[in-house]
Amino acid sequence: MDEYYYIFFIVLSIIFIVPNILKRFNIPAITSIMLAGMIIGPYGFKILQIDTTLKVLADFGAIMLMFLAGLEVDNETLKKEFKNSILLSIFSLVIPGIVGFYIGTLLKLNLIGNLLMSVIFASHSVAIVYSILEELKLVKSRLGTILLSSTITIDLLTLLLLSVVIKLSTNSSDIWLFITESLIYIAILVLFLPIISKYAFKLLEKLHIQRIHYVLFIIFIAIILGEVIGIHPIVAAFICGVAISEALTKEEHDELLNKNLNAIGYGFFIPIFFLVLGMETNFWVLFDINNLKLIFIIIITAILSKYLSGYIALRFLKFDNIKAKLGAILTVPKISASLVAANIGVELGIIDNNLFFAIVALSVVSSTLVPIVFKNIYLNVKK
Fold it and tell me: What is the pLDDT of residue 74?
């Protein structure tokens, strides 16, 4: 019997069984799957290794997650809360960014290294924030909308800033060309994709399978065009989601399309993304005594700067103390952008392995503990 049957049996068993067991302890599904990934992966009991197939499925899971996050954004509420989300974005981007830059100078990094630390400290995680909000049915609440739109804005900006940092470390003459091309690319998707999609959905109104094919087709066109410029695929996927959501109505056939796309994403691909994310996480860095001081400094400064900036901004926006604390907690998780930035920093020789491990530790702590803390506080407050 082919070994792939065993691999998929293990993967599907984890996706199905583990979240159902751990939800009794108020552990979110994404966290339980990530923890399972850590246990069975290369840094755990080595039950599974990350092969090409799993990696491709995980990448597609990340794309689907970002697309569905964009698709679920309530554009009317988003427009209404846009100014408020911008305030939260500015606080959560600037304050941690300055702290990150300062930490970089203390660690005697060069200018590019300091900028890289700013990106890491400022980054959010749309994947984790959206998944938690979706699980607790908070996506379309006022707090959820502001948090999600702010997280999206910051993730977009930090990914674009990361691209700029990479350009600066290689060839600074292309910076303005890259920024211009990126803005044009985003504008074209946002302005023209809703028009094209409305026509396509009307044409395929009763052809439900072909409507799904159209959406997947559009996502990958956007990704391929974005890759030519240098835009990260998850950015392209999210913008596609926002643009296509403009073309959807509240009618039954559009509701069915939305449900089908969510079933495809959350039924298979997205859980694999979180499982592989866990498998790729070297949690042993948390127990490296030689690196403990640096790990402690990075974790404390990054988490505190994010939490305090989020709390202050949300209090300015007239949220009560409990909601401001809950919202501030959800500004803390960082996984994809911070790990991508750290990997690039090592590859370019900007940061050393000790600092890399400290950033990995920050990602492990913020992405696994924060969802648990948030869910438990929220459920206790709700009682």
Answer: 64
Residue whose tokens read 């920093």: 345
30, 170, 333, 355 from 278: Cα distances, Å: 10, 31, 14, 20
Q: What separation, in Å, do the N-terminal and C-terminal C-alpha atoms of the chain show?
A: 50
* Placement of tokens 């939260």 in the chain: 88
Rounded distance between C-alpha atoms, residue 356 and residue 340, angstroms: 11
**Per residue in 298-324, pLDDT tens?**
999 999 999 999 999 999 998 999 999
221 Cβ contact list (under 8 Å, min separation 6): none
102/106 Cα distance (integer angstroms): 6
- Residues 22-76: tens digit of each pLDDT: 888 777 787 788 889 989 999 899 999 988 889 899 889 888 987 887 787 666 6
Beta-carbon neighbour count of residue 78 at 10 Å?
17
Per-residue pLDDT tens for 77-122? Answer: 666 677 788 899 999 999 999 999 999 999 999 888 999 999 999 9
Using an 8 Å Cβ cutoff, are 114 and 101 in contact? yes
Domains of the chain (ranges; CATH) run 3-382 (1.20.1530.20)
Helix 353-382 crosses helix 126-135 at what angle (to 10 degrees)? 20
- Alpha-carbon distance of 245 to 366, in angstroms, equals 30
